[in-house]
UniProtKB/TrEMBL annotation:
InterPro entries: ATPase_NBD, Hexokinase, Hexokinase_BS, Hexokinase_C, Hexokinase_N. GO terms for cellular component: cytosol; mitochondrion. PANTHER family: HEXOKINASE, HEXOKINASE TYPE 1-RELATED. One of its GO terms (molecular function) is mannokinase activity. Belongs to the hexokinase family. GO terms for biological process: glucose metabolic process; glycolytic process; intracellular glucose homeostasis; mannose metabolic process. It holds the Pfam family Hexokinase_1. This is Phosphotransferase. It comes from Tulasnella calospora MUT 4182. It catalyses: a D-hexose + ATP = a D-hexose 6-phosphate + ADP + H(+); D-fructose + ATP = D-fructose 6-phosphate + ADP + H(+).
Length: 473
């Protein structure tokens, strides 16, 4: 933990160097530990390809091959993420070029729990309002029925591209009457109720969207990753390497996108990840105990909560905020992961941005020693997240056996995009795992990946629709 010039302050503060070392020890991942996680991860990926119903389900996404870059036309994309709903109008102009117009709506905690049909009504309503204003501006012709990709970032069992049954909610969602149902049907019902003129062409996971969108603009892309509210990855696998699909008669050399749903790695068993007691509290108090073990250590929904739980412990032990009213920190999930970014970015000697995080949002005055500790703690939690994410990426690289040739990984989501130094920490993790060869794997921001990818997949689907059961084969 880098407390640099803080030693003198630490001396007359309850924040001792032993205390700091304790957290350092809890959150630091050694290269050896990372390599053992990668090995277990590779086995887990293989198991998911072999059999249905595995913890990491390796879901065939029924997106075949890569885009040519020459897909063209206007498409709608509706992206139901874990924090935001985005409605996009995507114009593909060929040559890997595109234009996106989008509107973003923040989802409330209430919307994440209300009756499922109401959630889809909200999606249909937002789409309808977006279409009306696009028609008023003249960007869409009135009466035109545009093809739409629906980016739905939760594990769905698919047997074709425009259909998918929700296996389980993740990322804190719990809307009744959606698990076990076909979400495209639920959404289509809402669209019909609201008279929204679109044809739902493709159901796409955000990771598959990021994979395909990244490949459209950068053909060296082999893996798509999401680091936002949740954490997940997709990559393209030869059908011949997916034993559980062997009876479908798809040629072995066909490439199929696989939505790994890797957030579930180490769920239930809890054998491989170095979980702290804060991770356990988050898990057991979540609406899905024991599930999504990997995601809960990494993604934007949880990092702020891990930080808050450490603060709560230190408040109870009388180490921080002595004599202060800390009641505003009592509410679960009240500490946004974005504050960890803010704290890590604060380069002022007095850490004045951190002063305002606590004074403005929680009405707490902080000491300099506390602020220095918080900055270092944010660094530990953020670094563990990035290094664990790099373990998952390394596992796919190893599974594909592409370390020597190298590849690019397209990553979308606010954590990757906005957390200072996150990308560098991932790359450092890859080098710790693979040595110098780790540098053959690079990452890039899959900008608007979820929405753009969904539109491209809708386009791929449309052009291949006449080719039989596998809608976009
Ligand atoms: P979604 O998951 O809905 O697609 P995003 O990719 O924007 O949306 O991710 C939202 C998550 O990113 C939230 O958990 C939020 O806490 C986190 N986040 C937002 N801004 C930042 C930031 N500046 N630094 C780190 N995390 C952030
Ligand atoms: Mg997203």
């Amino acid at each position: 933990m880098s407390l640099d010039n803080t030693q003198s302050i630490v001396e007359d503060s309850p924040i001792t160097s032993e205390l700091i070392q304790k957290y350092e020890k809890l959150f630091t991942l050694t290269p050896e530990k990372m390599r053992s996680i990668v090995d277990a991860f590779v086995e887990t990926l293989k198991r998911g390809l072999e059999q249905y119903g595995q913890v990491v389900p390796m879901i065939p996404a029924f997106v075949f091959g890569w885009p040519t870059g020459e897909e063209t036309g206007d498409y709608l994309a509706l992206d139901l993420g874990g924090t935001n709903l985005r409605v996009c109008l995507v114009t593909l102009s060929g040559g890997g070029k595109f234009d996106i117009k989008q509107k973003k709506y923040r989802l409330t905690e209430e919307q994440k729990q209300m009756e499922g049909s109401l959630l889809f009504d909200f999606c249909a309503d937002s789409l309808s309002a977006f279409l009306e204003s696009a028609q008023a501006e003249g960007t869409i012709k009135a009466g035109a029925e545009l093809p739409m990709g629906f980016t739905f970032s939760y594990p769905c069992q698919q047997d074709r591209i425009d259909h998918g049954i929700l296996i389980r909610w993740t990322k804190g969602f719990g809307n009744p009457n959606v698990e076990g149902f076909d979400v495209t049907q639920l959404f289509a019902d809402s669209l019909k109720k609201h008279n929204v003129p679109v044809s739902l062409t493709a159901l796409v996971n955000d990771t598959t969207g990021a994979l395909i969108a990244s490949h459209y603009t950068n053909p060296r892309t082999r893996i798509g990753v999401i680091l936002g509210t949740g954490c997940n990855a997709a990559y393209a696998e030869r059908v011949g390497n997916i034993p559980k699909m062997k009876d479908l008669g798809i040629p072995d050399d066909t490439l199929m996108s696989i939505n790994c749903e890797w957030g579930a790695f180490d769920s239930f068993e809890h054998k491989h990840l170095p979980r702290t007691k804060y991770d356990e509290i988050i898990d057991l108090t979540s609406n899905k105990p024991h599930e999504q073990a990997f995601e809960k250590c990494i993604s934007g929904r949880y990092l702020g909560e891990i930080f808050r739980l450490v603060m709560k412990e230190l408040i109870d032990e009388g180490v921080i905020f002595l004599g202060k009213d800390t009641s505003k920190l009592n509410e679960e999930y009240c500490f946004d992961t974005a504050y960890l970014s803010t704290m890590e970015s604060d380069m002022t000697p007095e850490l004045l941005t951190i002063v305002s995080v606590f004074s403005q949002h929680y009405k707490i005055e902080t000491t300099l020693a506390e602020r220095q500790f918080f900055k270092a703690l944010a660094n530990l939690i953020g670094t563990r997240s990035a290094r664990l994410a790099s373990c998952g990426m390394a596992a796919i690289v190893k599974k594909l056996d592409i370390l020597d040739e190298g590849c690019s990984i397209g990553i979308d989501g606010s954590l990757y995009d906005m957390y200072p130094g996150f990308k560098e920490r991932i790359h450092e993790g890859l080098t710790d795992i693979f040595g110098e060869k780790g540098k053959n794997v690079v990452t890039h921001h899959a900008e608007d990946g979820s929405g753009l990818g969904s539109a491209i997949i809708a386009a791929m689907t449309k052009t291949r629709k006449d080719k039989g059961f596998f809608t976009n084969l």
